[in-house]
Amino acid sequence: PHDVAALIPIIAGAGGIVTTWEGAPAERGGRIVAVAERIEGAAREIDASGLLVMPGGIDSHVHLAQPTFGGPKMSDDFLTGTRAAIAGGTTTVLPFAMQPRGAGLRAVVQEYHQEADGKAYCDYGFHLIITNPSPSVLGQELPALVGDGYTSFKVFMTYDDMVLNDRELLEVFECARGCRALVMVHAEGYDAIKFMTERLERAGKTAPYYHGVSRPEIVEREAAHRAISHAELTDVPIMIVHVSGREAMEQIRWAQNRGMKVYGETCPQYIALTADDMKGLNMDESGGKYVCSPPPRDHASQEAIWQGLTAGVFQTFSSDHCPFMDGVDGKRSPKAKTSFKWVPNGIPGVETRMAVLWGLGVAQGRIGMNEFVALTSTNHAKMYGLYPKKGSIAPGFDADIVLWDPARKETIRQALMHGACDYTPYEGLAVTGWPVMTILKGKPVCEEGRILGAPGDGAFLKRGISPYASK
Ligand code: URP
Ligand code: ZN
Ligand code: ZN
Ligand code: ZN
């Protein structure tokens, strides 16, 4: 029944994968129709000999075009951010639609759709960020949006513009339980950070390096434990995102060992960077390039994170891509020079996420390639209601594929990047293993760093309820 002209077999050895693509009827287009030992008679073949054929990456924690309330502008929008994603082997991103304080949710979601519409090079969905848990938001808007495919949302335990107090967290958790949304928690304690920040500032310790000192692991551990306690009280699963080291990780493991549905996410910065990077050159402002929250820790923390990755404490490895320019419009603004607290938090990473995990993980024998696929793709799909559409190579799944060269040696550098940010925090990192072709719904969209796709190739994904969000 398939029009042979619409098939692409990706040949690895004699067999391969057949996908439908352009020209196929819309409802069937872009899917995998067969994975077979022998494939014959197709119009086009992609030679994948010597390469690994893996599910396209899914990055479930990305910030694009998010306003920063008086701070510098985020450097990637949906066009440049998703262009970077496909260049790095990622075919689906889940950015955030952030509710400014006092605003309704539905209008915010519409604004982000307008931002993204026609611009994305890869598929995308939205998590919501809840900053205003009013009765109407929790009673009506949120449940309705969950029903419309926005099935996860994030809450913050720090940041002036976003922090929720304990009472609000409990209300939101209870709401999530009712509508089976998956809650993502940014676990860092607001008051402790503020106390530490003011103490450092009084002592004249204002360089970017002190960003890390102002929010040590204790602050993250305390908030993680508090979030877990609230989750237990309200009987709801939670996902603690961007875990930086052993302390918070042990809280998650503790909860998991007690049978709680507490999940964990970690990120490239916690295996590839340390607090020392924030020292820059002699404690100057160049350290701002590594300022993110939670901050990178030390080498012992990196080892702890690897243990968590292999032991199953963490389900997902996401970028937390949150790019700001390393210039006066970003990390080095005049205000940022007065205190680390004005250095915008966040670093780019959507393009380098998979290469960093492969290079430091698989190529160095710390994790296997099946774990790599789970951590960069499959688990994200399962966790966030995209399975069985995304996250695997099998008939019926979207034909989102990355051809990966496990032998390719590359040095990560800004000149290779495809986003709008002016630096990569992984400059100079030598890795083995690199994406050589990214295929989105059957269409090659990037080959050897050359973008073949177009804005609008990516579509909005209405997500299902997360099976992990249900008790
Ligand atoms: O520093 C970071 N990670 N900024 C992004 C916002 C967040 O908390 O994920
Ligand atoms: Zn609800
Ligand atoms: Zn966060
Ligand atoms: Zn984030």
TrEMBL record:
CC cofactor: Mg(2+); Zn(2+)
GO biological process: L-histidine biosynthetic process
MF terms (GO), sorted A to Z: histidinol-phosphatase activity; hydrolase activity, acting on carbon-nitrogen (but not peptide) bonds, in cyclic amides; metal ion binding
Residue ranges occupied by any Amidohydrolase-related domain in the UniProt entry: 52-445
E.C. code: 3.1.3.15
Pathway: Amino-acid biosynthesis; L-histidine biosynthesis; L-histidine from 5-phospho-alpha-D-ribose 1-diphosphate: step 8/9
Reaction equation(s) it catalyzes: L-histidinol phosphate + H2O = L-histidinol + phosphate
Coiled-coil annotated residue ranges, if any: none
Origin superkingdom: Bacteria
Processing after translation: Carbamylation allows a single lysine to coordinate two divalent metal cations.
Primary enzyme class: hydrolase
Alphabetic keyword roster: Amino-acid biosynthesis, Histidine biosynthesis, Hydrolase, Magnesium, Metal-binding, Phosphoprotein
GO cellular component: cytosol
Residues binding Mg(2+): D3
N6-carboxylysine: modified positions: K154
Recorded family membership: Belongs to the inositol monophosphatase superfamily.
Role description: Catalyzes the stereospecific hydrolysis of the cyclic amide bond of D-hydantoin derivatives.
Name assigned to this protein: Histidinol-phosphatase
